[in-house]
Design goal:
Distance between the termini: 24 Å
Strand order of the largest sheet: 1-2-3-4-5-14-6
Order of helices and strands: EHHEEEHEHEEEHHEEEHEEEHEEEEHHEH
Oligomer: single chain
Strand content: 25-35%
Length: about 425
């Protein structure tokens, strides 16, 4: 970080200046009126009171040049749960662009969570290349599927679906937590985050209830809103699914059968999902785009990169964080050289001895069977399960001293699920 920079917590006295920076950096925030500005300031104070969100600013010569919001998360990483630092609302004064303000703030953010012992960091990038250069690796892409309701399966028990309200918040929280235990990458949610699911007057929440010994149990829910794609045509309505949680195939099919029954009112349903294979469920997977992808491929969905992850301590990710994770019963002695141009402590080789899938401390009496070299961004994507080892090798993004062992390395780093993230920050 620049020696002239100081990063500290933003106080109430700094909030007016920070609000101006945010208003200019994010015009979509619509902080154009005094009333909107005061609402933003009050929300900022309220959010900090949750004790999991803090605002920090970068100052030079006493002047606030930029700010950010830091989040304390707990992420399910494969078979364990890890403290994860999140950063959002990174905003820089327009008069001080290209002066490394954002870079210095991110450097502070990473050091802040390293000192707290968090092994992982995450963010949503305004520019993926900017953050990849600072060591953040891509997570799972999100897909948008535009589906005609009649193309959804109708075999599920839609009679078990009903609208949910705040009275169901405990059931929603339990359903989400059980889903988290089955998956990889989700962040644990606190009570205020569950309440926020019901906060928007435009949102609707539906749930599927499994009979469980006579006591119905919420085993799936979906959050959606309506939109008018053509304001001049009031009869043309689309439904946008922004969160879909399901524990069983039966629960998913029940929700989809309910959505299918809306075909008389809904023209298209837009599913925003981190699932590449959702089109297998559809009677017609095409999304209505007319031009074909050569030779003869029909567009089923659009995709985008978003959430990015970063490992904050390379040897410790095996020695502490994933010490109890089974790396697919593989026995292999691997030397890692992770190149990190932003956190120098991550540089330098280290050896991990995998014994029947269990990472063990390496001893100096035996050399590594294979040496691999890759940058911290791709290492982070590999560790979270967002990309496979063989793909990195095929793309020339990892160097391997013994190419004959690529298949074993691919099995070593094969994870059943890619990381999901449903938390916006």
């Amino acid at each position: 970080m620049d020696n002239a920079s100081q990063v500290r917590k933003i106080t109430d006295d700094d909030l007016e200046a920070f609000t101006t920076i945010v208003a200019n950096a994010y015009p979509s925030s619509k902080l154009n009126s005094e009333e909107a500005r005061q609402r933003f300031i009050q929300r900022s104070k309220d959010v900090e009171n949750e004790r999991t969100v803090e605002y920090y600013g970068l100052f030079r010569s006493g002047q606030l040049l930029g700010g950010m919001r830091l989040f304390d998360f707990t992420m399910k990483l494969h078979s364990t749960k890890v403290a994860t630092g999140g950063v959002g609302l990174v905003a820089v004064d327009l008069q001080h662009k290209k002066e490394k303000v954002a870079r210095d703030m991110i450097a502070y953010f990473l050091q802040h969570y390293r000192e707290r012992g968090a092994p992982m960091a995450a963010l949503y990038p305004f520019r993926p290349d900017f953050y990849q250069n600072m060591g953040f690796g891509y997570g799972t892409k999100i897909s948008s599927y535009l589906v005609k309701p009649a193309d959804l399966p109708g075999s599920g028990e839609r009679s078990r679906v009903r609208f949910l309200s705040l009275d169901d918040q405990a059931s929603v929280a339990s359903c989400y937590q059980r889903y988290l235990e089955q998956t990889n990458g989700l962040f644990e949610r606190k009570k205020f985050e569950i309440l926020a699911l019901f906060a928007s007057p435009e949102s609707r929440v539906i749930g599927y209830f499994d009979p469980n010994g006579g006591q119905p149990n919420l085993s799936a829910y979906a959050i959606f809103s309506y939109r008018q794609p053509e304001p001049a045509n009031f009869a043309l309505t689309e439904l946008v699914i922004r969160e879909l949680i399901y524990e069983t195939p039966e629960a998913l099919l029940g929700l989809l059968a309910f959505l299918r029954s809306q075909s008389d009112q809904i023209n298209r349903i837009i599913f925003h999902l981190q699932e590449d294979n959702f089109h297998f469920l559809l009677a017609d997977p095409r999304n209505g785009t007319l031009p074909l992808v050569p030779h003869v491929f029909h567009e089923t969905n659009s995709q985008g990169v978003g959430i990015m992850y970063r490992v904050l301590g390379t040897p410790g990710i095996f020695g502490k964080v994933l010490a109890d994770h089974n790396f697919n019963e593989q026995t292999l002695r691997v030397e890692f050289e992770v190149v990190d141009n932003f956190l120098a402590l991550n540089n330098g080789p280290f050896v991990v001895n995998f014994e029947q899938g269990q990472p063990r401390p390496a001893t100096a009496d035996r050399p590594a069977e294979v040496k691999i070299k890759l940058n911290i961004a791709n290492f982070s994507s590999l560790i979270t399960g967002a990309v496979g080892f063989e793909d990195l090798y095929r793309y020339g993004l990892v160097e391997v001293s013994e190419p004959r062992l690529v298949e074993r390395l691919n099995r070593l780093f094969w994870f059943a699920r890619k990381p999901l993230c449903l938390t916006g920050f």
